[in-house]
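Notes from hallway chat w/ T.B., transcribed later so I don't forget. T.B. wanted the structure written out for a chain they're using in a teaching module, and asked if we could keep both sequence and structure tokens in one place. Agreed to drop them here.
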Amino acid sequence: MEELLTLEELAKYLKISKHTLYKMLEKSKVPGFKIANQWRFKKSDIDRWIEEQRKLTVKGEPQR
């Protein structure tokens, strides 16, 4: 079975605050879904999203 992360676990994994993660979720910037009104994240989706973000960034600047 695929590993699911809680909001708290994902914040630790990304090394950001829960507050920052909530803001990103409000803007649909992170792949996730709700189960019983609680956020869950597939680790494989998050790892793929991280790689996409890395490719979009060149020397700290978003590609245009």
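Follow-up for T.B.: The mean pLDDT is 90. Might be a good example for the class.
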